[in-house]
C-alpha cells in the first residue's frame, strides 16, 4: 500500500470481518495526497476521497475515524472536520467547522474518537484542547483543557462515561469524567518526550 509521502493517520473499517471480504479495508491519509481506501488482504486501492479547501486545492486530512457503524468517515483538518459517506467516494462531503465566531476549538484536529454508547464524538487538537460534539449536527458540547502539549490520542471507556486523552511531549494521560465535563478524574504518568504520536489502549 504505497503512499507518496508522510502518513498522517490510518483507521480500520469497524464492521470488518474476514468472512466478508468486502468489509476488509482501511483508510489512510498522507501529506499532499487524498484519503485512500485500501484492500486489507491484497493492498489494492479501492477508493479515494478528495477533500478540497476554500481555494479548491486538494488538502490532506490529519486524522481519520469511521463512525462505529462504518457508514461515515470523519476527517480532521485545521479548525474543521469533514464528513464523507463511506459508500460515496469522491469530493462531496459535509463540512463541520470547530471554530465559529471566535468560539470553539482552534488548531489542527489531530485525532477523533466516537463514544460507544452515546451520540457524541471527541476531537483532539494540537492547540492542547479536546472538544466534545454531537454526532448528528456537530454541535460543540464542551471544550476540555488541561494538557501540556498538543493532544494526539483520545479513547472512550466502553460505557462512554470516561474519556482518556494523551498529548505529545506530555507525561500525563488524563481521564475525564464526562458526567462532570471539565473535571479531570485522575491522571497517569508515562514517558512521552518527543512530538511523535503515542498511542495507548484500555485493558478492560
Automatic annotation (TrEMBL):
Q: Which terms in the GO cellular component ontology are assigned? A: Cajal body
In terms of Gene3D superfamilies, this protein maps to:
YVTN repeat-like/Quinoprotein amine dehydrogenase (2.130.10.10)
Could you tell me the keywords of this UniProt record? WD repeat
Q: Which SMART domains would you find in this protein's record? A: WD40
- Cross-referenced InterPro entries: SWT21/TCAB1_mRNA_Telomere (IPR051150), WD40/YVTN_repeat-like_dom_sf (IPR015943), WD40_repeat_dom_sf (IPR036322), WD40_rpt (IPR001680)
In which ranges do the WD repeats occur? Answer: 144-179
For molecular function, the Gene Ontology terms on record are: RNA binding
Query: In the UniProt record, does the keyword Cell membrane occur?
Result: no
Superkingdom classification of source:
Eukaryota
Pfam families tied to this protein: WD40
| Gene Ontology annotations of biological process type | Cajal body organization
Similarity section: Belongs to the TCAB1 family.
Quaternary structure, per UniProt, is: Component of the telomerase holoenzyme complex composed of one molecule of TERT, one molecule of WRAP53/TCAB1, two molecules of H/ACA ribonucleoprotein complex subunits DKC1, NOP10, NHP2 and GAR1, and a telomerase RNA template component (TERC). The telomerase holoenzyme complex is associated with TEP1, SMG6/EST1A and POT1. Interacts with the chaperonin-containing T-complex (TRiC) complex; which mediates the folding of WRAP53/TCAB1. Interacts with COIL. Interacts with SMN1. Interacts with RNF8. Interacts with histone H2AX.
Record protein name field = Telomerase Cajal body protein 1
